[in-house]
Amino acid sequence: MITVALAQMRCRVGDLEWNTRRMVDLAAEAASLGAAVVAYPEMSDTGYDLDAARRLAAPVNAPPLATLAEAARRLRLTIAVGLSERDGDRVCNTLAVVGPDGAVAQRYRKVHLFGLDGLDEAGTFTPGDAPATVSAGGVSWGLSVCYDLRFPELYRLEVVAGAEVLLNCAAWPTARIGHWEALARARAIENQAYFVGVNRVGTDAGLVFGGRSLIVAPEGEVVAMGSDAEEELVVGTVDPDQVDDFRGRLPTLRHRRPAAYRGMSL
Question: Rounded CA gap, 265 and 234, in Å?
Answer without folding.
Answer: 40
